[in-house]
């Protein structure tokens, strides 16, 4: 044992293995990887799980979906109650206070708040008043309203609450520092406008760009037109006509129809509008005909039950000609639409004469129209003579009439959007309110989707189960292929039709059945759970008794560790114990444990219950307690045998499916760290019967370039049918790994003549001379096509490396990555003498070993792009060998749908990047010592400051802090480094949760799921294609039932 220890540590004695100088054998590396896996305890822990007895049960899909729907519906009812409480307080209060509250645009006395993830004061609200809104006669809410807002804080999935008034005043609670104070007007936001509509809107802005509009008039008119567009929601549509002597629209499909308001169409309208210049005359007739053509361009079925609004902006001077008459054009065109179109006209500037003013009034009144073709809807006519004192944006942005509004008694809801403070996805619920029967504004609250649908995000009933929610028009709220609502870096995605994500055979019938469950005008929400036919849930029957010390919680600041502290690279650690962290998966109600600040009382409750000192369960799942006890024997193994056999493995960890994380040496993890949301975990369970070796990356805990080796622990052993119980892993230095290769393959040590390269089964480099020779940090994974063009071309020609496409739905691209697979007679590897390399599989792993003979002029690349550029940024060329790249897909912007919907496999959604409550590495100035006593400031690890509050980040050490952790004996040997690492338009509708259980008839084919074989390290932004092993033509069996009505909903976009 001692001899092996010295070999691993000093790297001085080579393994002498007879081999042909022209050949390498992957079996040798496979044995070494197995040794590493066993040294970290894979065989030991797998054997422990093999001994267990399991109780197999078949999940009751209908019961499960009803339970989840009841919880989600219950949370929506809580929102309904909270908004009605706030509305009642506002109506009773009548905003009667003259006391001016905190200004949202001025710094106040705010405290950091975990829930709102910014500095706030829950003791008061603040206000915003746009610069163009007069401050005269403005009143504010009293404490009655404040108390209602405070009471609503008990609804844990609510975030900010606010009141938007028709005067333009905005009240926000809790008070915090906001931005864009001069221009923020609640009346122009979709959450406000959605409350003024009962059916979707089609809005066309007709904007004069004649020579007389030069200067401020055209600038203000453009700004006003864009404001109108921003008020519209996901069910609304928009059109734009600019006119002088001619009438023009955007080219293509924009020229003959109104279009949905999406991020793409909004950008197109902005670009088009910004390009317009003031010139020539003004032909009203041509402009009106073009505008009506847009409104007629959509089918009569689509136009039914929609408000149609035309907003006409001019500074006078119609030159339609002697034969032209705008009123006749309005009569003829609108009568063809049953007089459904409302026309608002806006005259701007001082140059409009009395005749021109009368014409604009008559156009709004539609004086030539006949009610026999349908009731004529009279519009508004406004004149703005001084654009400096009167805001055209305000006038046009409130094109809807307050007095005619339907007073909804149930909330309307927006489409998901990104919250400014949390960067997570939220929806906004609003209720309109009136004073003395007259509409006065709306009360609203933001709802954190991750808490609203927590049961879906933490659903665990086997490996082949997931859920999604859609509305009655097929728009998707939550789906595994959409960005996770917790993801703080994902972009908003308005391509969300369920047909983009559910592509199996007859799934359309299921979707149609979900959408047809309509109980009120508009659409419903439906919940669908998808599971494998004959799927079973396995519960461990054995229940080990508690053992003293089996649960040392990772929060050393809340739970005293029974061992002295030490510095382990950049971490505050203990080598005397393992530490345990629990993720929300470990709790029965995951939503109660997300984004919640942990306390010493809470940690003590967990510790006392797990140890058996108390009998009141603090919310833990029984399976999580079993996992804590099952993984505890790893502590002794890691501290003894593992440490002796593999001292180069500094970090060891096991992380279970039910949310238990055990780490050695004991260390504190970030509060939001969840292994099940990390790419390394998904890679491992996708290849659950083999050793999974990662591409190298920079360790955030200070140990340089490292590689991870992970392997799944399976129920019932290593057979492919066993479900994953946990993943065990370790990290080690890339320099150690390189030395190991040279030890077991002496030919690799001959660096002047040969290069030894390791790639994974997606073609990403695991080992390459570049990693050893470069002094630059590793910023992501590097594909073999970037450094080894000759080998890449050869592998592609031999069809060993082939492209794998998937559809990146949100970006409208088909992305291409690679797969590496040996087939037929090549299963044992290949030799290409012409190109000077051989490739061998490493059995029982995800990697291939390449021996390359060095030659002059050896540098050759398939890809000239920078190493870490996302494939979504590199267009594919015509070459067979290319970078990871994309091709544009044919997409209809005007209908917000793909022209071809079949024949594509959707890319998997990027795994979410969660918020970080604090950072735990590095040096900083502390305000307090570890006992919480305030001090003048000293410099040490951030972790030593209990509050994680620092005066500045760059400093010279003034306090030694804890002693450095004791390293293995070889630490004293010169020139030897031991490496450590971190683990790897708004329609009011009744909400109806429709229960759908989809049962996949056929199990996934093939042995491995390669969904997560692409560039999936935490720092990358590559999208991951779904597996080519999944059968997307499987026909599901589905069962539906309905749940009781809970509230009303309206769906919009960009509510912020």
Separation of the first and last Cα atoms? 64 Å
Specify the structural class: alpha+beta
Number of DSSP strands?
51
Strand content: 15-25%
Largest sheet entry: 8 strands, mixed
Which ranges are low-confidence, i.e. pLDDT below 50, for 5 or more consecutive residues?
1-22, 517-523, 916-926, 937-962, 967-1056
Name the shape in a single word.
globular
Helix content estimate: 10-25%
**How many helices in DSSP terms?**
25
Please tell me how large the radius of gyration is: 33 Å
Arithmetic mean pLDDT: 81
Question: Which labels suit this protein?
Answer:
disordered N terminus; alpha+beta; eight-stranded mixed sheet; Sensor-like_sf; signal; 24% strand; 25 helices; 51 strands; VWF_A
Structure overview:
With 1056 residues, the chain is an alpha+beta fold. Strands 2, 5, 6, 7, 16, 17, 18 and 19 form an eight-stranded mixed sheet that branches. Strands 9, 10, 11, 12, 13, 14 and 15 form a seven-stranded mixed sheet that branches. Strands 26, 27, 28, 30, 31, 32 and 33 form a seven-stranded antiparallel sheet that branches. The longest helix is centred in the N-terminal third of the chain and has 33 residues, at 61-93. It has 25 helices and 51 strands. The chain is 23% helix and 24% strand.
């Amino acid at each position: 044992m001692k001899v092996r220890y010295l070999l691993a540590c000093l790297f001085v004695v080579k393994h002498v293995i007879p081999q042909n100088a022209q050949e390498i054998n992957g079996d040798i590396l496979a044995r070494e990887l197995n040794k590493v896996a066993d040294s970290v305890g894979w065989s030991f822990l797998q054997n422990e799980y093999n001994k267990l007895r399991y109780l197999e049960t078949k999940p009751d899909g209908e019961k499960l979906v009803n339970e989840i729907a009841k919880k989600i519906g219950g949370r929506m009812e809580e929102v309904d109650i909270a908004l009605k409480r706030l509305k009642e307080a506002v109506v009773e209060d009548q905003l009667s206070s003259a006391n001016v509250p905190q200004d949202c645009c001025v710094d106040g006395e705010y405290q950091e708040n975990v829930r709102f993830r910014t500095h706030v004061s829950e003791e008061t609200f603040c206000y915003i008043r746009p610069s163009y809104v007069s401050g005269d006669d403005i009143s504010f809410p009293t404490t009655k309203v404040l108390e209602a807002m405070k009471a609503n804080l008990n609804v844990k999935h609510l975030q900010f609450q606010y009141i938007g008034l028709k005067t333009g005043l905005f009240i926000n609670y809790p008070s915090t520092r906001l931005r864009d104070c001069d221009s923020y007007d609640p009346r122009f936001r979709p959450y406000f406008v959605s409350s003024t509509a009962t059916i979707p809107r089609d809005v066309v802005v007709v904007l004069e760009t004649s020579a007389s509009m030069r200067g401020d008039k055209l600038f203000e008119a453009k700004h006003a037109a864009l404001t109108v567009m921003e008020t519209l929601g996901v069910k609304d549509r928009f059109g734009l006509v600019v006119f002088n002597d001619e009438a023009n629209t955007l080219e293509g499909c924009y020229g003959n129809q109104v279009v949905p308001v999406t991020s793409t169409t909004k950008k197109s309208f902005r670009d088009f509008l910004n390009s317009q210049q003031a010139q020539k005359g003004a032909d009203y007739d041509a402009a009106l005909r073009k505008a009506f053509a847009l409104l007629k361009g959509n089918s009569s079925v689509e136009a039914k039950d929609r408000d149609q609004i035309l907003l006409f902006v001019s500074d006078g001077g119609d030159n339609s000609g002697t034969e032209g008459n705008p009123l006749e054009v309005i009569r003829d065109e609108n009568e063809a639409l049953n007089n459904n179109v409302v026309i608002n006209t806006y005259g701007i500037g001082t140059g409009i004469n009395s005749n021109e003013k009368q014409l604009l009034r008559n156009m709004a009144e539609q004086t030539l129209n006949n009610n026999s073709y349908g009731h004529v809807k009279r519009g508004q006519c406004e004149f703005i003579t001084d654009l400096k004192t009167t805001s055209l944006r305000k006038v046009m942005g409130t094109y809807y009439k307050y007095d005619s509004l339907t007073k909804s008694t149930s909330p309307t809801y927006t489409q998901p959007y990104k919250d400014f403070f949390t960067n997570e996805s939220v929806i906004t619920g609003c209720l309109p309110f009136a004073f003395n029967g007259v509409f006065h504004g709306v009360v609203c609250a933001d709802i954190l989707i991750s808490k609203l649908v927590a049961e879906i995000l933490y659903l665990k009933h086997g490996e082949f189960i997931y859920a999604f929610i859609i509305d009655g028009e097929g728009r998707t709220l939550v789906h595994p292929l959409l960005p996770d609502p917790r993801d703080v870096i994902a972009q908003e995605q308005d391509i969300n039709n369920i047909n983009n994500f559910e592509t199996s055979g007859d799934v359309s019938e299921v979707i149609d059945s979900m959408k047809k469950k309509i109980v009120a005008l508009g659409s419903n929400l439906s919940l669908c759970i998808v599971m494998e036919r004959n799927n079973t849930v396995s519960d461990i029957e054995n229940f080990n008794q508690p053992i003293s010390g089996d649960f040392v919680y990772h929060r050393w600041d809340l739970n005293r560790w029974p061992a002295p502290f030490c510095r382990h690279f950049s971490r505050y650690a203990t080598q005397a114990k393992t530490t345990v962290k629990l993720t929300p998966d470990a709790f029965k109600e995951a939503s109660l444990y997300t984004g919640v600040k942990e306390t010493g009382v809470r940690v003590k409750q967990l510790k006392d219950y797990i140890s058996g000192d108390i009998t009141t369960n603090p919310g833990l799942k029984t399976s999580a307690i079993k996992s804590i006890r099952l993984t505890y024997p790893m502590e002794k193994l890691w501290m003894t045998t593992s440490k002796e056999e593999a001292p180069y493995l500094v970090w060891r960890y096991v992380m279970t499916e039910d949310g238990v994380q055990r780490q050695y040496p004991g260390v504190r993890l970030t509060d939001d760290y969840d292994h099940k949301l990390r790419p390394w975990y998904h890679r491992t369970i996708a290849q659950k019967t083999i050793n999974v070796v990662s591409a190298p990356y920079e360790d955030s805990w200070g140990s340089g370039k490292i590689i991870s080796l992970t392997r799944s622990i399976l129920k019932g052993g290593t057979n492919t049918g066993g479900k994953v119980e946990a993943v065990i892993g370790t990290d080690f230095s890339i320099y150690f790994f390189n030395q190991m290769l040279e030890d077991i393959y002496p030919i690799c040590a001959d660096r002047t003549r040969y290069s030894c390269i390791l790639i994974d089964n997606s073609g990403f480099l695991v080992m390459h001379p570049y990693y050893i020779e470069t002094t630059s940090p590793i910023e992501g994974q590097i594909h073999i096509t970037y450094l080894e063009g000759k080998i890449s071309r050869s592998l592609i020609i031999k069809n060993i490396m082939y492209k794998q496409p998937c559809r990146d739905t949100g970006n409208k691209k088909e992305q291409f990555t690679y797969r590496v697979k040996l087939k037929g007679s090549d299963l044992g590897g290949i030799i290409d003498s012409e190109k000077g390399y051989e490739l061998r599989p490493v059995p029982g792993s995800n990697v291939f070993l390449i021996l390359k003979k060095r030659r002059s002029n050896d540098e050759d690349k398939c890809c000239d792009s920078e190493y870490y550029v996302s494939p979504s940024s590199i267009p594919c060329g015509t070459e067979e060998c290319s970078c990871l790249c994309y091709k544009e897909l044919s997409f209809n912007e005007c209908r917000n749908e793909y022209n071809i919907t079949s024949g594509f496999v959707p890319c998997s959604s990027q795994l979410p990047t969660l918020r970080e409550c604090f950072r735990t590495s590095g040096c900083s100035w502390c305000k307090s010592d570890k006992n919480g006593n305030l001090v003048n400031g000293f410099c040490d690890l951030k972790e030593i400051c209990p509050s994680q509050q620092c005066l500045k980040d760059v400093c010279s050490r003034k306090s030694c802090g804890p002693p450095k952790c004791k390293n293995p004996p070889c630490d004293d040997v010169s020139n030897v480094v031991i490496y450590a690492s971190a683990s790897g338009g708004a329609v009011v509708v009744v909400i109806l949760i429709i229960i759908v259980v989809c049962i996949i008839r056929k199990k996934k084919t093939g042995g491995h799921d390669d969904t997560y074989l692409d560039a999936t390290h935490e720092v990358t932004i590559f999208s991951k294609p779904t597996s080519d092993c999944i059968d997307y033509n499987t026909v599901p069996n589905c069962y539906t039932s309905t749940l009781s009505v809970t509230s009303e909903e309206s769906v919009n976009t960009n509510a912020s």
